[in-house]
Amino acid sequence: MSALILDGKTLAKQREQMLKQRVDKLELKPVLATILVGDDPASATYVQMKVNACGRVGMGSRSVTLPETTSTEELLATISELNNDPQVCGILLQHPVPAQIDERACFDAISIRKDVDGVTTQGFGRMAMGEQAFGSATPAGIMTLLDHYGIELAGKHAVVVGRSPILGKPMAAMLLNANCTVTVCHSRTADLADQIGRADIVVGAVGKPELIRAAWIKDGAVVVDAGYHPGGLGDIEKDGLESRVSALTPVPGGVGPMTINALISQTLEAAELFA
Ligand SMILES: NC(=O)C1=CN([C@@H]2O[C@H](COP(=O)(O)OP(=O)(O)OC[C@H]3O[C@@H](n4cnc5c(N)ncnc54)[C@H](OP(=O)(O)O)[C@@H]3O)[C@@H](O)[C@H]2O)C=CC1
Ligand SMILES: Nc1nc(=O)c2c([nH]1)NC[C@@H]1CN(c3ccc(C(=O)N[C@@H](CCC(=O)O)C(=O)O)cc3)C=[N+]21
């Protein structure tokens, strides 16, 4: 057996063609506002990738950059301006923000209609309850990828490793909504290897290079790796996996491009729904 490669890079490109056609039909071009606080080079690169993706599908973007010393109040004021700007359809606040800022308060200040990155408490709650909401971009992108490749979810045991507000937790809720039986593991999980060994679907969202060992994963599983570390390593060790699992996301070229695609796709939806 050779694993099906869940090629997010190619799927994101295909979906951009469709998005472009939808953008071209709109009278006003949708604008995504990006907010980058501080000067972390990796964050700046990610934000630039999002801005570039907007450009490729014909959407506009507005990049706000704030200094490392920004206070919560200053960031809240910026968000409030963007909430009130009728040209702006979506707001992305790049995580993480500097430590002096109350990130949760700032995420939650984003208008629910403009929360195209799915970071607000209200958006999370609505998504978890199955109401209309924009999902958190990374797990939403993963769900689109799994759906595109026809990966069956109902009745499957999914093990999500990580419970962060924008990745692990919403991922677990989305898989639950798709009728998986979901286990969520985290840093206090006592028997990670055993939990992973029971998974039909494994999602690595830990942020530690190859913490999840290939040997823990059972034959035929679906392996989704959200991690990305220097040297092209993910959160999941891939040695020997390709010949014995049923499907696998590459790193890079798997989850990352789908995250960006989910963000711009939800920005367009916001424009179509609310502009
Ligand atoms: N491709 C993409 O678009 C994106 C990729 N990422 C990547 O995904 C990964 C996770 O990101 P993010 O969720 O933001 O990270 P966080 O650091 O916010 O969360 C990491 C999670 O992993 C858990 N964890 C840490 N150590 C262990 C351990 N030894 N055993 C089990 N669980 C552990 C933590 O548990 P606890 O809660 O107990 O502390 C926490 O819930 C990173 O590699 C990041 O780069 C992130 C966002 C987008
Ligand atoms: N509010 C918020 N929302 C986010 O969605 C968010 C965030 N903050 N903070 C940081 C993480 C990280 N993130 C990535 C997006 C794309 C790639 C991506 O496309 N990576 C390429 C590789 C890129 C390269 O080569 O450097 C790939 O995996 O193929 C990676 C990581 C979104 N994040």
Key phrases:
single chain; 275 residues; alpha/beta; Rossmann fold; 2 domains; six-stranded parallel β-sheet; three-stranded parallel β-sheet; 9 helices; 9 strands; 39% helix; globular; binds NADPH dihydro-nicotinamide-adenine-dinucleotide phosphate; binds 5,10-Methenyltetrahydrofolate; multifunctional enzyme; amino-acid biosynthesis; THF_DH/CycHdrlase; hydrolase; histidine biosynthesis
General description of the model:
- The structure is a single chain.
- The protein has helices spanning 8-24, 41-56, 72-83, 103-109, 121-128, 137-148, 168-177, 192-197, 255-274, and strands spanning 4-5, 31-37, 60-66, 88-93, 157-161, 181-185, 201-204, 222-225, 247-248.
- The chain is α/β, with parallel strands linked by helices and 275 residues long.
- The protein has 2 domains: 28-111, Leucine Dehydrogenase, chain A, domain 1 (Rossmann fold); 137-255, Rossmann fold (3-Layer(aba) Sandwich).
- Helix 2 (41-56) links the parallel strand 2 and strand 3 (60-66).
- The longest helix is centred in the C-terminal third of the chain and has 20 residues, at 255-274.
- 5,10-Methenyltetrahydrofolate (GUE) is lined by residues 46, 49, 92-95, 117, 119, 137-138, 166, 228, 252-253, 256-257, 259-260.
